[in-house]
TrEMBL record, chain A:
Belongs to the universal ribosomal protein uL15 family. The keyword Metal-binding does not apply. Residues 95-172 form the Large ribosomal subunit protein uL15/eL18 domain. This is Large ribosomal subunit protein uL15m. It comes from Petrolisthes cinctipes (Flat porcelain crab). One of its GO terms (molecular function) is structural constituent of ribosome. Keywords: Ribonucleoprotein, Ribosomal protein. Pfam families: Ribosomal_L27A.
TrEMBL record, chain B:
One of its GO terms (molecular function) is structural constituent of ribosome. Pfam families: Ribosomal_L4. This is Large ribosomal subunit protein uL4m. Transmembrane segments: none annotated. Belongs to the universal ribosomal protein uL4 family. One of its GO terms (biological process) is translation. It is found in: Mitochondrion. Its main location: mitochondrion.
Amino acid sequence: MASRGTEKALSLLRRLPRVELHNLKPNPGAHKNKTRGRGIHGGKTHGAGSKGSGQRQNFMRLGYETGNNPFYLRFPCQNYYKGHHLKLSYVPLCMGQLQKLIDTNRLRTDIPIDVSQLIYTGLFNVKPLEKEGGFMLQDDGMDHFCATLNLEVQWASESTISAVERNGGVITTAYYDPMSLEAAVDPIRFFKRGKAIPRRMLPPQNLIEYYTDPKNRGYLADPKLVAQERFNLAQKYGYQLPDPRESPHRHMLLEKKDPRQIFYGLEPGWVVSLPDSVILKPTDPELKEHYLS
Amino acid sequence: MSLTLRLAFHPRLHNVVRNFVTSCSKGAADTVVVPKSSGTPLIIEDKWKDDTGAVEDREAWVETLDNSTDSTQRGLIHLNPRIFASYPRLDVIHENVVWQNKSRMVNYAHTKHRSEVRGGGKKPWPQKGTGRSRHGSIRSPLWKGGGVVHGPRAFTTHFYMLPYHKRVRGLISTLSAKFAQDDIKIVENLDMPSDEAGYLEQLCEDRYWGPSVLFVDESDIMPRNITLATDTLGHMNLMPVYGLNVYSMLKHTTLVLTVGATRLVEEKLLYNLDRPDGRSLLTRFRK
């Protein structure tokens, strides 16, 4: 914004006539008339071209190559798309970016960080309906990362896990089904609906392996094995593993969500009423049984 | 500056640095004339200064509307370059002007279509046997005095919303363009010793302001004298900061801002340049 070009433009303006209502105009080419004239003013064919599908509006079907053997029939096997309805994409979250969020006070570090907290920074958007599964931690800017966090993301690589743990933090990878993710992305909109907080579903078959693996710090992995893997990773990357139990922030660091839980401090089955500032809990034994994890 | 006046406006100013002696003259050739007033000259520092910009800080004289004192200049004010020296996007200014004009425009043109024109229910002549062309109604669009097809229909509003950030950008561009062309003047306040229109007209003429002048103050309760003086003058108007807009700034030749109004405009526009929830404003406006 601010540059030598700005200075030049402003100094040029000093020598030009006064900017007034009558000498303003849009940039050349900015305005394009969307409508054609009517009758004889619309051009010979009103933009429809002569003859063929353009004129007759019989558009060819998708993939049709006017008589050739179409691509989708010539090469029937496209493995790239195999199981596309099961695959999820993730919103990239770089470690340098995460550090910047903390440095600029956009992200609180005194509470555990999950999808809701990351969305609340106002810089990200996760669309569960477009098959986005949450956040994927990426190692860009990893060398600058120096925060102690209790972080929950949906996908993390070994190097990013080591960067978080090296600083005394705790990282978990957790799966959110689309319905739960929709609630976690915009909690206020969800609470305004007046519905009970759902149970978080277990991961689908293709993701069970990832989230039960202690190497990925999966939320379904055995905590003892996770502790072992934390130690192993510290050995592998050559750093002294800080113990979160001895940290002054141990309450925050050791806070963990239940696999069925979506929001910290709120259990499935509860209804949050924002206008009355009241939390309604189920009393019916059958409901309690249903929401029990 | 009389003692009472100084006391009156002193608490309203921020970061007032007094005993201003150095940095006023730059070299022997172009010495800046220090305003000779009875009080010490003052510099009002930029409140939201950041050194990141490549554009130099802008400065302006702080004047007064009181012609009775020996000097009309009270001191110097530092203006934020992100507001008063940003790139003048003339196309965005134009878009803002068009938006302001169109959003209040209602088209009253109206035509009747064939069912609304009186009569025409009966078939004028039989379909066959008359030797004349086939017609079903005398109010068909083909007939003289018939209905109009796709004609204008009252009341058509031309209201639309310009994207939020373009509106912010338009204000900043206009302020920058006007400041670059010396059309923005800063005054300490809008206090005047006289309530006569002739006094204000003479003052503007002496200082080469105008012919049309827009005075902008922080709040919408203005001092009594300037309110009376501008009451009969169509080309000199008063406006609070919350009413400041691109069209009015361009409609008037000179824009006169009080120190308080300048700081408020800067604060509001700087907030909008860096606001954390800027993404939520990108959603399309729905009527």
